[in-house]
């Protein structure tokens, strides 16, 4: 069984991940994981913290001479901001008085987390509810990406919209035209949006929000190519691949919506405009004339690219804060607290989305093809495909 756990406070010494279930003998490169970590740190709209951090993993267990051992893999990402927080975040009791955070930010976990865990100091909530944690997921996703590449599967994302700029739900294109239009120049663009003109408008929108002391959300799309037919199942609700992707993508902090394939677009037209016509090619392969299903029918992959669009809300820390409550006094206040913050995290969330999709596909591929060593998984995969 593939599974992973992560630990680490945003301003603690490090983030730690334990990954179990990847087969032995899988070649893994730290540099491939680090590239994803760097991509997550980038994109327009990131704040001061990202100038401090230079995320990179260190393997502590489970990898030897560049290959997995089949034992649990432990990775660590150092928090370079830690020296600035060492006293405030000390595990041992300290003499000095540390100022408590008591004014909660609407939209963050400050209020719900403080009530739930009984914390007087909201800092105790912020530290783990912070999306610093998503760096850990990207590291795990970076391993999964390397596993999936053995089977010719790639996962990529791009930005579809920022606030009210961009995004159409109805594409009305064949899969080939869609793929071509989508991935041209995506790699080169810092926003990872396929359309250069739109990218400029999105950047301008982010800068406008920043000038106004505000934040903005948007939509990213994540796509997996090369996925074989037959991952996931309809036999139980929680085995549907669409459901598993829903949980994985909705677990990204600030994500408030997710659609697969034509998604909400499919609800506005009749069935004859939605369902993807199946064809059988002369070489024996299967293909569809369109991909409104987003690569999943009946909870099972159908061999087309898996396409998910994900809606991200504007992040909660506003430079011009909203009214709120001071939890220490119960007093209604004019302004909640502001601390150093991002303005827009849609491109970064897209990279986290790639990681979550890679994780779900790794889990589903191992469910179907299993194997304690890569050789065994490969053998199962190739005989299964035949
Ligand atoms: C990569 C990333 C970076 C984020 N950075 C910030 C930030 O700087 N300030 C902030 O208030 N929220 C930030 N967020 C969002 C909060 O973590 C998130 O809004 C919070 O967990 C509450 O959202 P929820 O209701 O979806 O859990 C970020 C989210 C992501 C994915
Ligand atoms: C640290 C990261 O994102 C952080 C997520 C975050 C939040 O509230 O979610 C708040 C900010 O942290 P800080 O208060 O230290 O500036 C972001 O920088 C990261 O993405 O690695």
TrEMBL record:
One annotated GO molecular function: chorismate synthase activity
Keywords: Amino-acid biosynthesis, Aromatic amino acid biosynthesis, FAD, Flavoprotein, FMN, Lyase, NADP
EC number(s) from the headed UniProt entry: 4.2.3.5
Binding-site residues for NADP(+), renumbered to this chain: 40, 46
PROSITE patterns documented for this protein: CHORISMATE_SYNTHASE_1, CHORISMATE_SYNTHASE_3
Binding site for FMN: 128-130, 298, 313-317, 340
Biological function: This reaction introduces a second double bond into the aromatic ring system.
Protein name as annotated: Chorismate synthase
């Amino acid at each position: 069984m593939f599974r992973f756990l992560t630990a680490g406070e945003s301003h603690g010494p490090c983030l730690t991940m334990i990954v179990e279930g990847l087969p032995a003998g899988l070649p893994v490169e730290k540099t491939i994981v680090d590239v994803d970590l760097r991509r997550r740190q980038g994109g327009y709209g990131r704040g001061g913290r990202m100038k401090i951090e230079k995320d990179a993993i260190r393997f502590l267990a489970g990898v030897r001479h560049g290959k997995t051992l089949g034992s649990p893999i432990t990775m660590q990402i150092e928090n370079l901001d830690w020296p600035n927080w060492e006293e405030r975040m000390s595990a041992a009791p300290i003499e000095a008085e540390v100022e408590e955070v008591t004014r909660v930010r609407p939209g963050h976990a400050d209020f719900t987390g403080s009530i739930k865990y009984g914390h007087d100091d909201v800092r105790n909530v912020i530290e783990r509810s912070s999306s610093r944690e998503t760096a850990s997921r990207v590291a795990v996703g970076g391993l999964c990406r390397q596993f999936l590449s053995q089977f010719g599967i790639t996962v990529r994302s791009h930005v579809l919209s920022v606030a009210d700029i961009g995004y159409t739900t109805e594409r009305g294109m064949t899969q080939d035209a869609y793929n071509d239009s989508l991935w041209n120049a995506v790699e080169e663009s810092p926003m990872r949006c396929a359309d250069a003109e739109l990218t400029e408008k999105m950047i301008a929108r982010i800068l406008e929000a920043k000038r106004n002391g505000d934040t903005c959300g948007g939509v990213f799309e994540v796509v997996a190519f090369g996925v074989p037919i037959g991952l996931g199942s309809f036999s139980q609700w929680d085995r549907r691949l669409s459901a598993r992707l829903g949980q994985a993508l909705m677990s990204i902090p600030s994500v408030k919506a997710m659609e697969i394939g034509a998604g909400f677009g499919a609800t506005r037209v009749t069935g004859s405009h939605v369902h993807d016509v199946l064809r059988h090619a002369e070489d024996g392969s299967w293909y569809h004339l369109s991909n409104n299903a987003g690569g999943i029918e009946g909870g099972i992959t159908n061999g087309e690219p898996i396409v998910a669009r994900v809606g991200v809300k504007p992040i909660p820390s506003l430079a011009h804060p909203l009214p709120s409550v001071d939890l220490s006094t119960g007093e209604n206040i004019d302004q909640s607290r502001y601390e150093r913050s991002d303005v827009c995290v849609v491109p970064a969330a897209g990279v986290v989305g790639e990681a979550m999709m890679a994780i779900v596909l790794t889990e589903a591929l191992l469910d179907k093809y299993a194997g304690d060593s890569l050789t065994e998984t490969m053998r199962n995969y190739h005989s299964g495909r035949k």
